[in-house]
Amino acid sequence: MLKVKVKKVMLSYKFRLYPNKEIEKKLEEQLEICRWLYNRLLEEINNARKEGRKITQRDTQALIVKLKEENPELKKVYSKVLQMVNYQLWSNMRALSRLKKNRKKIGKLRFKKRERWKSLNFNQSGFSIDVKNNRISLSKMGSVKAKIHREIDGKVKGIWIKKYPSGKWYAIVQIEKEIERKEKTGKVVAIDVGIEKFLVDSDGRTVEYPKFIDKTIERIKRTQKELSRKKKGSKNYEKYRKRLAKLYDKLNNQRRDFLHKLSRYYANNYDGIYVEDLNIWRLVRKGKANTLHRHILDASWGEFMRMLSYKAEGAGKAVVKVSPCNTSKRCARCEAIVDMKLSDRVFRCPVCGWTVDRDYNASLNILKAGLGRPAVPVEREPLLQTISYKDVVLGQILSMKQEAPCVSEGWFTWVKCLGV
Length: 420
Ligand SMILES: [Zn+2]
Known about the structure:
By secondary structure, the protein is of the alpha+beta class. It has nine helices and 17 strands. The chain has helices spanning about 20-50, 55-70, 80-100, 210-230, 235-270, 280-285, 290-315, 360-370, 390-395, and strands spanning about 5-20, 120-125, 125-130, 135-140, 140-145, 155-165, 170-180, 190-195, 195-200, 205-210, 270-275, 320, 345-350, 355, 375, 385, 405-410. The strands form four sheets. The chain has a seven-stranded antiparallel β-sheet with strand order 2-6-7-1-5-4-3. A hairpin with a 3-residue loop joins strand 9 (about 195-200) and strand 10. The protein binds zinc ion (ZN). Zinc ion (ZN) binds near residues 333, 352 and 354.
C-alpha cells in the first residue's frame, strides 16, 4: 500500500473581534496589567544581575504567584496569560543576547511604555471558539463577538488577542494541522527581487511590483498632512489618527494577500526555490533613499521570503538561500563581470554578447549558485512574461511549461561563490 506522507504544520488564522464596551474595558485593563507585570519582572531580573544573583525563567515564573499578593489586580488576568508574559520576556532576552553575540551594538531590554503592550496570549487553555454563533470565549473576560469567516480545520493550540493601532481587535488563532506533502514537480527556480519589479524568476517570469502601494501611500501622505494640522488630542485629531491607522491596515491586508498568493504559487509549483540572502542583498544594493515606498517594499520582500519558507516547508520542499556574489554584474553565460549602474535595466555582455533583462540575468546567476552548475537558456533573448499584481491576486500566474526557455548544461564549470 502506498504510504502518504503526513506532516504537522502550525497555521494561524486572523479573525476580527467586536468587543462590547464592557469587554473592551476589560481587554484594555488586562493589557495594562500584563504590561505592569512585564516591567516588574524585568526590574527583578535587572536587580538580580546587578547584585550578581543567578536568575532563571522559572524563578520569575514563581515570582508571579507572590506578586499576586502584592498586586491583587493580577488576579483579574487568566494565570496562563500571565505565564506567557514571563515567557515573552525571556524570549526577548534570548533574542537580544543572540544579537549581542553577533556583535551588533545593542542596548538593554527596555521597559514597556504605556500603550506598548498590545496582546494577550492564551496558550493551550482558557478559551473556546463557537464557530456557529461567531463567538470566542476567554477566561476571566467573557464571550466576545467575532467574525469567524472560515472553517477551523485543525487543532486549536492557542489564541492571541491583539489590538491594532487602528483600535480594531483581532484574534489570531493558532492551529495545528496535518497536511499531506505535496507531490514533487521535479522543477527548480531562482527568484531575484528587484527595485522596479517585485521579482523576476529564472523561468522568465516578471512579477510587477504591486501598484496599489503607491495609491495607498498617496492617501496616507495626504491624511498624514491633514493630521499634522490638527491640534493634538482634539476630536478632529483623533478622527484623522484613526483614519490613518485604517489606511495602514488596508495597505497591510492588500499587501499580505498579494504575498500569500505569490508565495503559494512558487511553493506549489517548484521543489527547490533559490533566493538571495536578503540581509546581504540590502547592504549590497542600497538604492533609493529611505522613503516610505522603499521601506514598505523592503518589508514586503522580507515577508515574502518568510511566507515562501514556511509554505515550502509545509509542502515538503526547500527554499535555499544563496549568498549574492555579483549576481547582477556577472554574465550568466560567460561569467564576465560587467560594470553595471543601478539604473541600467538591460544587461549587455561585451565579451559574449548576451543581452538580457538585468534581473533575469541575476536570477540565472542565483540558480547557478544554488545548483552548482550552469543554467543559461539556449535562447539568446528569451521572451519574458510580465505578470501584473492583479494576475497574482486573481491566481492567474500562467504555467510557463511550454514557453519557458530551456536550460542548457555544461557550457562551463560554475564555481560557487562563497561570499560577497
Ligand atoms: Zn558574457
